[in-house]
Amino acid sequence: MASLSNGACKFLLGFLLIFLVSFAKGEDIFLEWHVAIDTRIKPIVSVNQPVITINGMFPGPLINSTTNDNIHVNVFNDLDEPLLMTWNGIQQRLNSWQDGVSGTNCPIQPGNNWTYVFQMKDQIGSFFYFPTTKFQKAAGGFGPIRVNNRIVINVPFPKPQDEFDLLIGDWHQESYKDVRAQLNSSHTLPTWMLMNGKGPFGNPLTTAHESFTVSPGKTYRFRISNVGTTWSFNFRIQNHKMLLVETEGSYTNQITLDTLDVHVGQSYSVLVTADQNAADYYIVASPKMIADTNQSSLIAVGVLHYENSSTPPNGPLPKGPDPFDINSSITQARSVRWNLTTGAARPNPQGTFNVSNVTLSQSFLLHGGVTANLDGFVHYTVNNVSYDTPNTALKLADYALNGSGVYLLDDFPVHHISSLAVKGTFVRSGNHKGWLEIVFFNHHQNIDSWHLAGFGFYTVGYGYGNWTPEFRSTYNLYDPVVRSTVQVYPKGWTAVYAYLDNPGMWNLRSQNLKHWYLGQELYVRVHDPDPNPAKEHPPPENLLYCGLVLAPPPPPPANPQPMPNPAPPSPQKASAATSNIGWFLIVLGFLMAL
Ligand SMILES: *[C@@H]1O[C@H](CO)[C@@H](O)[C@H](O)[C@H]1NC(C)=O
Ligand SMILES: *[C@@H]1O[C@H](CO)[C@@H](O)[C@H](O)[C@H]1NC(C)=O
Ligand SMILES: *[C@@H]1O[C@H](CO)[C@@H](O)[C@H](O)[C@H]1NC(C)=O
Ligand SMILES: *[C@@H]1O[C@H](CO)[C@@H](O)[C@H](O)[C@H]1NC(C)=O
Ligand SMILES: *[C@@H]1O[C@H](CO)[C@@H](O)[C@H](O)[C@H]1NC(C)=O
Ligand SMILES: *[C@@H]1O[C@H](CO)[C@@H](O)[C@H](O)[C@H]1NC(C)=O
Ligand SMILES: *[C@@H]1O[C@H](CO)[C@@H](O)[C@H](O)[C@H]1NC(C)=O
Ligand SMILES: *[C@@H]1O[C@H](CO)[C@@H](O)[C@H](O)[C@H]1NC(C)=O
Ligand SMILES: *[C@@H]1O[C@H](CO)[C@@H](O)[C@H](O)[C@H]1NC(C)=O
Ligand SMILES: *[C@@H]1O[C@H](CO)[C@@H](O)[C@H](O)[C@H]1NC(C)=O
Ligand SMILES: *[C@@H]1O[C@H](CO)[C@@H](O)[C@H](O)[C@H]1NC(C)=O
C-alpha cells in the first residue's frame, strides 16, 4: 500500500470519476427501423393477413438498453397509412414530445421517416413498444424493451443464466383493417393467442411454435408482456415454479407462484429454474373471463425444452385457476408488493419510500364504460365522455396555441359521470408536483386495464362494487408496487396514486385496444410555469407539424414576464451544455491524475 504513489492514487480516482460519469450519463444507442406490412408470415396458415414487421421481424427487435441510455430510433414508415410508436412504461422524463401517441406527436406519414430520441432516465425493468394509430397494434409492430441496471447497482437476485423476452397476445384471424372497420358494429373477438408471434404448439393451423432451451439446474429470467388487444391471460409452466421479481420497472417482493395473471399492457419478470427431469414441458397462457371451451387456438402454448431432451411435452396442459375466478386474481394482485430495500431507480433511491404520509392534491374518479346513445354508433367512454381525436397533436396545440381551437382545458368531469354522453377532446390539468389519486371503475364485462404515460401508478387498492372515501383506510400505503398499467376487474374499482413531477401532456388510456380506439382515454396536462428548459424539454428540432399548426410558432415577444410557452434554446444547445459538463468532469479527472 505504502508503495502506491500519490500520483497513482490520483490517477485511479480520476479514472473512477470518468467511469462513473460515463455510466451516469448513459450510452447513445442508434437504431434504424423499417416498419412494413408482410403478408407472407401467416401466423395462422391459410390466412393471408397483413402482419406489421420491423426490419422484417415479427415481433420487432429487442431494444436492449441500460438505465440513462439515450435511444435514437429512426423510424421509416413503409406502411400505407400514418404511424406512431409508443414506448409503453418508459416515462419520457420532461419530454412528452417523444411519447408517440396522437396527443403528443403528429403521425409519421407513409413513405417518411422520423427519429425518436429519448432517455431511459432513472428506470430499470421490462417494457415493450407498439404502434398507436389506426388499430395497427392488432397486426403486430410490437417488440420488447429491456432497461438493464447500471453495473454499479445491485440486482436483488443472482445473474440468471439467460433472459428470454416473451410477448404474448391475442390475435384476430382477419386483417386488422377489416377488424377496424367493423369495430363499432359487428366486431368479433380475437380467436387466437400467439407467443412471440407464433401459434399454439401442436395446432395444425400454425407452422411454428415458441420454444426455449434450458440447461438442467440453471435459472432463467422470463420477461413476459401482454401485447394483446383484449384478453388478460394466466401464465404457467408445467411442473415449474416461478419466482416473481419485477414488474414494469419495480423490483417486487419475491414470491413463488404456480400461475401469474398478466393483463393487457402489463409486463412481469419471473425466474424459472430448470429443476425437473430433463424433458420438454408446456408453457401456457390461457385467456381470462372466457369459458374454458375447446377453442384451443385461444390458449397460447410453447415449450420449455431441456437441452438434449428427446421427450416431447406430454400429459394435459397444466391447469390454471378458473378463468372467471376474480377473487384469486385480486388476491394475487394484492400480494405483488414493492421491495423497498433493494437498490433501484426510485424517487428516494437511498432509502425506503412509502406513500403513507403524502397529502393528496387531486382526486379523479374515472368510470370506463360504453355508450350507444351518442350518434347511433358504439363509443367507449370515460365518465360518459368519448375522446374525440383532433387533427392537431395536443402537445403541439399547447405549445403553439395554448390549446386554442383544439381542446378546452378542464371542461369534462373527473368526479362523476356526465348525465349526457358527449364526444370531446378531454384534457384535464394535473397539479405539478402534486399527488394525484385516481379511482378507476370498470363497467365492462371484461377485465379492463389503464395506463398513464409519464408516471408510475402506486397501486394502493383493488375492490368490488361501489367505492366510497372510507375505502381509503383499506389502501396499502406501505409498499404498493409502482407500475405503468393497472387492471380493473369487472364491476370493480382500482385505486392508484401518481406523483405528478413530470411536466408534459400525458395519455391516460384503456389498454384494451377497442376501448381505446373508440374513445376510452383522456390526457392529463401537467404544467410547470417555469420556462427553464432544464425543467421541461423544448420541442425536438425535427418536430412534425399537423392540423392547425403547420409551421413553427413565431418567437415570443422580447422579455415578457409571464412566459407560459417560450421558445426555448435549441435542443442542440441543450445537449452541448450537458456534454460540456461531461467534458469538464473528464478534464477534472485528468487534472487530478496529474
Ligand atoms: C444486453 O445488454 C447487456 C448489457 O450491455 C448485455 O450484457 C447483454 O448481453 C445484452 N443482451 C442482448 C440480448 O443483447
Ligand atoms: C430520415 O432519415 C435520414 C437518414 O436516412 C436522416 O438523416 C434524417 O434525419 C431522418 N429524418 C428525420 C426527420 O428523423
Ligand atoms: C428485497 O431486496 C433485498 C435486497 O436486494 C433482498 O435481500 C430481499 O430478499 C428482497 N426481499 C424480498 C421479500 O424479496
Ligand atoms: C363507425 O362506423 C361508421 C360506419 O361504418 C363509420 O363511418 C365511423 O367512422 C365509425 N366510427 C369509428 C369511430 O370508427
Ligand atoms: C370439449 O370436447 C369434449 C371432447 O371432445 C366434449 O366432450 C365437450 O363437450 C367439449 N366441450 C365444449 C364446451 O365444447
Ligand atoms: C448435450 O449434448 C452435448 C453434445 O453431446 C453435450 O456436450 C452436453 O454436455 C449435453 N448437455 C447436457 C445438459 O447433458
Ligand atoms: C369473491 O369475493 C367476494 C367479496 O369478498 C365474495 O362476495 C364472493 O362470493 C367471492 N366469490 C367467489 C367465487 O369466491
Ligand atoms: C407527515 O406529514 C405531516 C403533515 O403533512 C408533516 O408535518 C410531517 O413532517 C410528515 N412526516 C414525515 C416523516 O414526512
Ligand atoms: C412510511 O413513511 C412515513 C413518513 O413518510 C414514516 O413515518 C413511516 O414510518 C414509514 N413507514 C414504514 C413502514 O417505513
Ligand atoms: C391559456 O389557456 C388557459 C385556459 O385553458 C388560460 O387560463 C390562460 O390564460 C391562457 N394563457 C394565455 C397566455 O393565453
Ligand atoms: C350517459 O349518457 C347516456 C346518453 O346520453 C345516458 O342515457 C346515460 O344515462 C348516461 N350515463 C349516466 C351514468 O349518467
From TrEMBL:
This is Monocopper oxidase-like protein SKU5. GO terms for molecular function: copper ion binding; oxidoreductase activity. Residues 1-26 form the signal peptide. One of its GO terms (cellular component) is plasma membrane. InterPro entries: Cu-oxidase-like_N, Cu-oxidase_2nd, Cu-oxidase_C, Cu-oxidase_fam, Cupredoxin. Residues 40-150, 166-309, 428-529 form the Plastocyanin-like domain. Pfam families: Cu-oxidase (PF00394), Cu-oxidase_2 (PF07731), Cu-oxidase_3 (PF07732). Keywords: Glycoprotein, Signal. Residues 555-571 have a biased composition (Pro residues). Belongs to the multicopper oxidase family. Coiled coil: none annotated. Residues 555-574 are annotated as: Disordered.
